[in-house]
Amino acid sequence: MSTERDSETTFDEDSQPNDEVVPYSDDETEDELDDQGSAVEPEQNRVNKEAEENQEPVRKECTWQVKANDRKYHEQPHFMNTKFFCIKQSKYANNAIKTYKYNAFTFLPMNLFEQFKRAANFYFLVLLILQAIPQISTLAWYTTLFPLLLVLGITAIKDLVDDVARHKMDREINNRTCEVIKDGRFKVAKWKDIQVGDVIRLRKNDFVPADILLLSSSEPNSLCYVETAELDGETNLKFKMSLEITDQYLQREDALAAFDGFIECEEPNNRLDKFTGILSWRKTRFPLDADKILLRGCVIRNTDFCHGLVVFAGADTKIMKNSGKTRFKRTKIDYLMNYMVYTIIVVLILLSAGLAIGHAYWEAQVGNYSWYLYDGEDATPSLRGFFNFWGYIIVLNTMVPISLYVSVEVIRLGQSHFINWDLQMYYAEKDTPAKARTTTLNEQLGQIHYIFSDKTGTLTQNIMTFKKCCINGQIYGEWKLSLIFWQVDFSWNTYADGKFAFYDHYLIEQIQSGKEPEVRQFFFLLAVCHTVMVDRIDGHLNYQAASPDEGALVNAARNFGFAFLARTQNTITISELGTERTYNVLAILDFNSDRKRMSIIVRTPEGNIKLYCKGADTVIYERLHRMNPTKQETQDALDVSVTFILSVMETLCLCYKEIEEKEFAEWNKKFMAASVASTNRDEALDKVYEEIEKDLILLGATAIEDKLQDGVPETISKLAKADIKIWVLTGDKKETAENIGFACELLTEDTTICYGEDINSLLHARMENQRNRGGVYAKFVQPVQERFFPSGGNRALIITGSWLNEILLEKKTKRSKILKLKFPRTEEEKRMRTQSKRRLETKKEQRQKNFVDLACECSAVICCRVTPKQKAMVVDLVKKYKKAITLAIGDGANDVNMIKTAHIGVGISGQEGMQAVMSSDYSFAQFRYLQRLLLVHGRWSYIRMCKFLRYFFYKNFAFTLVHFWYSFFNGYSAQTAYEDWFITLYNVLYSSLPVLLMGLLDQDVSDKLSLRFPGLYVVGQRDLLFNYKRFFVSLLHGVLTSMILFFIPLGAYLQTVGQDGEAPSDYQSFAVTMASALVITVNFQIGLDTSYWTFVNAFSIFGSIALYFGIMFDFHSAGIHVLFPSAFQFTGTASNALRQPYIWLTIILTVAVCLLPVVAIRFLSMTIWPSESDKIQKHRKRLKAEEQWQRRQQVFRRGVSSRRSAYAFSHQRGYADLISSGRSIRKKRSPLDAIVADGTAEYRRTGDS
After folding, report:
1. SS3 breakdown of the chain: % helix, strand, coil, rounded to 5?
2. What one-character-per-residue DSSP string does 530-586 give?
3. Cβ contacts of 604 within 8 Å, gap of 6 or more
4. Rounded CA gap, 364 and 123, in Å?
5. N or C: which end of the chain has fewer CB within 10 A?
6. What are the binding positions for ATP in this chain (predicted)?
7. Looking at the chain, which residues constitute the CATH 3.40.50.1000 domain(s)?
């Protein structure tokens, strides 16, 4: 068994997944993976490999060819692919993007195809064809054609409006402009006109229109700073750098126009962090990598201009490859309605067949022997029965009324407008209302089980704020709850930015008095130990940091009097409480994800050498001097301080040491040697850094907060009470994601956290158990659903993208070399390979199912360092294995794929552009509006739609099945029980408005109570209000009502005499009596179903009844009969029948018998088995206004550290190498326009436990 498994595949078990790396292994090639394998391989594998290489040369991966400034090159025949028959299209995509579904040519066929996928629409199409056959039609064909065209037209117009909006957004992007070289000059061109091979110029704050090779820029060494928020959700700057030769020769316009470089690179793919290619120019080949590529969606920052060569355009760009396809989304109720329509059609066919058989039998027994029934046709009873079958199909077709779908679309449209008009979801600061971008998914908002949320910009504001610090064991920044504090006045500081909020005045006193030199040294360290860039605009300082965390620390030091002013290659200038001092920078020991710290070595103006270091407490404490005076005090402050526990912020420890001249000289020699090492340079530098970063003296710690959006904890709490699980999927680092989990209360102090390695071992054990149980007798044993964790307890899962690939077996596996022959030489080898693939797929599917089961046992799941494709994969796994309704919410282009994959996608119109909004179904400006969207609008929409559908089926069964009972008394002849005009207008006028208004306006409880009692939401998750059981209850209710409507009037008409001595027991009077009782019954029934009464509801119910009588008396008048004698044949029936009191008594009796049992059942149900909604309705007058939500009190456990230390830097290397090399220092710097984010830091006041 084990030998078999070993021959299938081998995994990289030696290398653990890296939590700091964003994985893209789902697209790795087999060759890439082979390179990672061991150098030693079995002899047989080596022989097979040699045979394979001799059989077929290895194909190069660089097959994408780009010629600069030569569009005709890319139009050559061998670059053309056959798209449709003889139509050919270039394999190079144009730069126009499309998020729309239709165009002018495909709209009609594709939209009609989508609509006829609905069973009812297809059913009415077949019915229309049948009505065109005279032999079987009892109704005119146009009675079905016009309603069908109306339904198709309204739906098509709605879809058209939705798609036109997408077209408009696409045009807005495609019509953006940039400069492109044409005819030897830079000319302004639209994005959609850009093609592969074009040379373009971009300026500061421009979006990159395509994936381009950076050729040159205004910065030294052609550096270019970009913001990648659209790609990975991070707002910190990253830098790209061109080749040295292109930087040297391609600065001038004429040189760029003459550039004729030739690129061979990889085919378009979705790997954001990888690029492999070669530039051939000037008879030399230059290697290209991802550091030289600017991706579409990036924004140019801190760079006046740059030039680039378009490599991938439009749909071939990496961000579009990550976006996924636009999917047609339909609600769960839509699918359920389709199945119910199938059920009704089956019932209709059975009824028609039964009645047709009855008619054939009746004809044989009665009709053929009754001379007065002879119609002039000598048809056999069987043939008459066959024609009657189709006649009943047409007569009973109103069991599936076509007006149902028109009404559903109208209700959805109205509910979408209610979302758009909701002022409580309007964000005034940015003038952004909520927007329902589709009108087909509203009721599904009331059935959500899982929410998948992005972090950056969705849960947080991307605004890092300095909140507190601990210096010498003393915490500054805490609010003393017994006092009222006001903001510190920083007006004494000329460099203060005026936006920084701090409330601890004692810290300012300590800085100004200088009684504790450690306090000043603390902020001096923040001002000097960093890689921030600085520029001045109109005399104001503007910082540009490699991460928002670092920017927040430098900005805090500036406000406290230690302002970073300028830097050169070897110096840094600081304003210390108004005094400018310049320090010589001797070395910058940069940050990376392994070191989790950075240091700087400076020489003071007095000649002393000092090292300043900041980093995560876990690495700093290992390097402190053992006699450090404040080590224990600082650790105690971090461990037991109420402030640090309740705030849950990112902590950073600060320390320093003084270095002797001789010690530095010896160390500097090693440092310089490591700096020029030709191999393993990073490892050599890290080893040298370790030698100097020891025996440090601790100054204190900082606490910075990535500020949550307003109302995030409250929203998550309410959604959790509604039994909605929230998973956070982010590209950010693990520590940051974990901190946000605590801050928004997804995680608490009593939460047991499981990480990737824990999950992997649990899943491995489960797979072994399943394999052991999968023996010969497995098929005779019922599968047992075991839990991964014991019941009880609060658990959370935090997993990185690398572990996710490892666990889900998405990481490419290396097949054994024995099986890796591209062409199996024997049938046995082919069979073994096929079986191996099947086993691998089965194992992968079982592993994925186990992972989903395990994750769903956790109260919270956080997936960090995941790619856009992995986000969509996680959503799809939950959809696949849990059959649950999912919602994805995000604000960046990296969230588009999961937004499209989920049942419902929500876009946040935030800091990261409009890509997520464009692809979403709903959009708004703040995460907190999600609770109102789901708990109020979603729940109301679900309840309204369910009530509407149940009532609609009921009223049509009650209406249609009267024909069935009538058929037993008319020889099964397909004779209608009502007047033709009543049949035509019943669903259009007499019973449409009340149910339409209920579907639009009804609410069981108010919006405030819906938010106050989130538990009301579970009815939608459990499909309690509309399912097959409810459908059959409506069917039974309709059957009983139809029996009452027919048989009570029938009994009353059997032996009756009017006041004038006549017996009005004719067919027409009977039809009027049944129709009147039906209209009154169904309209009063909607009154019983209505929970929220308004004047409009009451008017619609009584108005519909009055409208019925008004139209009936008009249609039964002599005047209209004179004008249209063949169309109006019930002349005088209404006035003759309804003047008889006993007919009114018959109508009243019929209505009473129909409604009184319903009233009795409702009363007993609400009294004995009340639902949560019933209880709240009963006591709603006693319920006070919605209470202010209180944050949960934290559980304090002594001796347990509750801080989550995350190094306050980007997870990539900083700018230290640029600064020390002088490449980024300009003789005359232009203004930067990336400013530290605006906004006053709001402090969330909390109390002691």
Report:
1. 50, 15, 35
2. S--EEEEETTEEEEE-SSHHHHHHHHHHHHTTEEEEEE-SSEEEEEETTEEEEEEEE
3. 583, 610
4. 32
5. N
6. 454-456, 550, 591, 614, 730-732, 865, 871, 894-895
7. 434-457+710-771+792-808+836-926
For residue range 211-251, list pLDDT tens digits in order: 999 999 988 778 888 888 777 655 667 778 888 889 889 99
CB 322 within 8 A of CB 345: no
pLDDT in tens, 894-951: 788 888 889 999 988 765 556 678 778 999 988 999 999 999 999 999 999 999 999 9
pLDDT at 403 over 60: yes
Is 1002 considered catalytic here?
no
Q: In the chain, which segments carry CATH 3.40.1110.10?
A: 465-707
Residue 432 sits at φ, ψ, to 5 deg, of: -120, 110
Neighbouring-strand partners of residue 1204:
650
Three-state secondary structure call for residue 455: coil
Q: 490 by DSSP, 3-state: which?
A: coil
Concatenated DSSP letters of 114-156: HHHTSHHHHHHHHHHHHHT-TTT-SS-THHHHHHHHHHHHHHH
895 is in an annotated binding site: yes
614 among the known binding-site residues? yes
Residue 571 annotated as binding site: no
1008 a known binding residue? no
Q: Where does CATH 2.70.150.10 sit in the chain? A: 194-321
| 550 known ligand binder | yes
pLDDT at 524 over 90: yes
Marked catalytic residue, from 211, 232, 247, 454:
454
State yes or no: 198 annotated in a binding site. no
Residue 37 has pLDDT above 50, yes or no: no
Three-class secondary structure of residue 175 per DSSP = coil
**pLDDT > 70 in the chain, percent:** 79
Whole-angstrom Cα distance, residue 1240 to residue 1249? Answer: 27
pLDDT at 941: 94
Sign of the alpha-carbon torsion through 730, 735, 739, 742:
positive
Element (H, E) at 861: strand 860-864
Q: What is the pLDDT of residue 325?
A: 59
**Confidence band (pLDDT; 50, 70, 90) for 1228?**
very low
CATH of 465-707, one of 3.40.50.2000, 1.20.58.1000, 3.40.50.10860, 3.40.1110.10: 3.40.1110.10
DSSP structure string for 207-230: BP-SEEEEEEESSGGGEEEEE-HH
633 or 697, which is more confident: 697
Q: Which of 446, 396, 250, 218 is nearest to 946 (CA)?
A: 446
953 labeled part of a ligand binding site: no
To the question of whether residue 894 is assigned a binding role by annotation, the answer is yes
Q: Is 454 annotated as a binding residue?
A: yes
Q: Check if CATH label 2.70.150.10 holds for domain 194-321.
A: yes
According to the 3-state scheme, what is the secondary structure of 598-634?
Answer: EEEEEECCCCCEEEEEEECHHHHHHHECCCCCCHHHH
Tell me the C-alpha distance between 1111 and 1104, whole Å: 10
The strand pair at 725-729 and 860-864 is best described as parallel
| Model confidence at 1059: pLDDT above 60 | no
User: Which phi and psi (to 5°) does residue 650 adopt?
Assistant: -80, 125
> Considering the domain 434-457+710-771+792-808+836-926, what is its CATH architecture?
3-Layer(aba) Sandwich (3.40)
State how far the Cα of 1017 lies from the Cα of 1004, in Å rounded to an integer.
Answer: 12
CA distance 1150 to 425: 48
The response to whether 871 counts as a known ligand-binding position is: yes
Does the annotation list 837 as a binding residue?
Answer: no
Pairing of strands 305-312, 211-217: antiparallel
Q: What's the 3-state SS for 936-1000?
A: HHHHHHHHHHHHHHHHHHHHHHHHHHHHHHHHCCCCCCCCCCCCHHHHHHHHHHHCHHHHHHHHH
Span 287-308, average pLDDT: 89
Q: Please report the pLDDT score of residue 378 as a whole number.
A: 67
Residue 94: DSSP 8-state: -
